[in-house]
Amino acid sequence: MRDAWFSPDERWLLTVSDEGAARVWDLLTSQPATPPLRHDDVVTTAAWSPDGRRVLTHARDGSIRIWI
Question: Are 45 and 60 in contact (CB under 8 A)?
């Protein structure tokens, strides 16, 4: 894991890794809440929307994705 961020309601954890993916984790179950949110390159950072319903990811190759 490269980095992690709590959702605004602190129910979910968003992580990024050097494997080209981000993932949302359910903190109540410690299980993944989503499949891997994949890029073609290393995901360097991610962020929650203010309402916690969307995730933005950015990869080293400059690609940006919004996940709903």
Answer: no
Cβ contact 14:48 at 8 Å = yes
15 within 8 A of 57, measured Cβ to Cβ: no
**pLDDT at site 52:** 95
Residue carrying structure tokens 């995730």: 55
Q: Are 52 and 10 in contact (CB under 8 A)?
A: no
Q: What is the pTM of this model?
A: 0.90
At residue 2, the pLDDT reads 84
CA distances from 10 to 13, 24, 25, 32 (A): 7, 12, 11, 15
3 state DSSP class of 16: strand
